[in-house]
């Protein structure tokens, strides 16, 4: 069995970092674009106010009039501290598991996506919890408010920092699994349809949109449940009145997942568990298509940059060798990319041994 070349080994070693960076930047872009819709969705999820797409313009107008235009992106800047590691870890884990689980099957792809979603959620959950609470509190938010919110949550111990993690994982595991596996399956279909076996940017956007639509529709009730648990004590569900942070932390009885779902059902019926879903049908496909496509674009650019860098390094090595055999190992190493360093050092030593044997003869 042929061993992998040093260059390919180096690239595979560095690929997790490229996946982390590409996924993080892709997530930041997607979240920023849909942030206004995300904030409105959370506001309706945690109250008993009825929602319909026709009410969306009036809701946006009310927020702009009372809090200003930038309030539509309230908490988005500090949210980026959570989005980058969340999306980055998710894509990194998924790419890694795809390599480990080869040859891939639909079941293995589903497992890889589910695991990636669970790991990223656990790693960044306290930041998501703080962001959800800031989203339903009136007034401007800043990095200082975000820090204070984290401190308040941390003062209650790990149970406070991870309040709502159960419905998050129950929803995220199938959600991420369906999203990633559906996206991979649709891309495979598109490649078979195309004569060159490649997938176009437009097809990538379509695959991401459809996969996001399917995944979010399947687990939406758990998303409503986790938001209600995250903002427990900050809002009055029946009245829909937004309360201040300090008052909210002093009130409210902590409920389990089933108790929270029961409360939502008693307040609003089965429709309460799906409130805002129509908005998600609009927001989700946009976010997913942008995220998946941007991830591919950034990672391809990083791959091209790495390849050109290695090519320049190899040209420099050839130039040094042509200048004369007097170059030392240290000189060659200084101009050699890590992927070829070991190979060139061994080659240089073999050449020196041959020269020494010739002199002895």
UniProtKB/TrEMBL annotation:
Q: Got a GO cellular component term for this one?
A: membrane
Q: How does it sit in the membrane?
A: Multi-pass membrane protein
The record's region (Disordered) falls at: 337-361
**According to the record, where are the Solcar repeats?**
14-100, 104-189, 203-301
Gene Ontology biological process terms in this record: transmembrane transport
Mind telling me which PROSITE patterns this protein's record contains? SOLCAR
Q: What is its main location?
A: membrane
- Is the keyword Repeat in the record? yes
Q: Which family does it belong to?
A: Belongs to the mitochondrial carrier (TC 2.A.29) family.
What's the protein name?
A: Mitochondrial carrier protein
